């Protein structure tokens, strides 16, 4: 695989040019059939997806999850966070279990997912992210070894917009990877992102769960209404009080997410510059010796 190209497994889930409105009946039926194996009533693993007006994205994420090869019984559940588009209509056509959360904000959606999850292991996914074929098992594995690990998180890359290359994203991702390593010592909770994380459900329910003071918007792009505190970071802090977090470096757990947040922040170069400046200012926090 070229360093500057998307991995091969992604392409069948891209549905180029497709929106909910122009999905064919056969495409919907095929996806429904593949998803039918991920609706166990007594699952080992719960994959929980918050969604707000995602009719044109979520079928891609579901397609990638439905292609997972797993030894576990899995439930895939969507929390419809007050969508006003056809998200719910699509979920119903696909036969996906869903719950409606009228309180707006990804925090409330993830908390409902935590409350509704039936599995021993809880994986958090997103509507605009694609998951490799062994993601479920690779993420769950460290949680099953009884070695004090109560939470996991993985790496990620970006899916460029149509006609856009991956060259610059490669370097952006390298910077992110470096920051993950630097923060692991003192601020590992910052590394944990809701579209690629997991934990033992019982540990996730201890403490405050995903609760934060102010709920984030779904894109949470930097602007006047940007919210610094995140529900995924809050969960990570809670988990760290109960055990260890594990960074899963295997490419089988590396997901690829939409670049739309970068676009909303003014494009790749502007986002890269802002990210570099922010973390340079915080470098002393990342590198200082941890107090005993």
UniProtKB/TrEMBL annotation:
Subcellular location: Cell membrane
Gene3D superfamilies on file: Spore Coat Polysaccharide Biosynthesis Protein SpsA, Chain A (3.90.550.10)
Highest taxon, organism lineage: Bacteria
Record has Glycosyltransferase as a keyword: yes
CDD domains: Glyco_tranf_GTA_type
GO molecular function: glycosyltransferase activity
Domain Glycosyltransferase 2-like per the UniProt entry, residue ranges: 46-196
Keyword Membrane applies: yes
Main location per the UniProt record: membrane
Cited Pfam families: Glycos_transf_2 (PF00535)
Gene Ontology CC: one annotated term: plasma membrane
Protein name per the record: Glycosyltransferase family 2 protein
């Amino acid at each position: 695989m070229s360093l500057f190209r998307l991995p091969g497994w992604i392409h069948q889930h891209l549905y180029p040019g497709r929106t909910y409105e122009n999905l064919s009946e056969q495409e919907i039926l095929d996806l429904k059939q593949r998803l039918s194996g991920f609706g166990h009533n007594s699952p080992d693993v719960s994959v929980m997806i918050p969604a707000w007006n995602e009719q044109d994205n979520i079928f891609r994420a579901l397609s990638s999850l439905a292609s997972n090869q797993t030894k576990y019984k899995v439930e895939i559940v969507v929390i419809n966070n007050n969508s006003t588009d056809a998200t719910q209509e699509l979920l119903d056509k696909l036969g996906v279990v869903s719950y409606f959360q009228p309180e707006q904000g990804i925090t409330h959606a993830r908390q409902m997912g935590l409350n509704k999850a039936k599995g021993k292991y809880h994986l958090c996914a997103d509507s605009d992210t694609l998951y490799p074929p062994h993601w479920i098992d690779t993420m769950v594995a460290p949680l099953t070894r009884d070695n004090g690990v109560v939470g996991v998180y993985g790496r990620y890359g970006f899916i460029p917009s149509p006609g856009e290359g991956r060259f610059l994203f490669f370097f952006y991702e390298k910077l992110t990877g470096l920051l993950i390593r630097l923060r692991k010592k003192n601020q590992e909770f910052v590394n944990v992102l809701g579209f690629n994380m997991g934990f033992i459900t019982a540990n996730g329910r201890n403490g405050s769960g995903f609760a934060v003071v102010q709920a984030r918007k779904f894109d949470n792009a930097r602007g006047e209404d940007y919210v610094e505190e995140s529900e995924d970071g809050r969960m990570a802090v809670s988990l760290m009080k109960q055990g260890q977090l594990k960074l899963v470096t295997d490419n089988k757990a590396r997901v690829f997410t939409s670049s739309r947040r970068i676009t909303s922040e003014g494009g790749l170069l502007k986002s890269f510059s802002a990210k570099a400046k922010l973390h340079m200012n915080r470098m002393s926090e990342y590198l200082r010796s941890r107090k005993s």
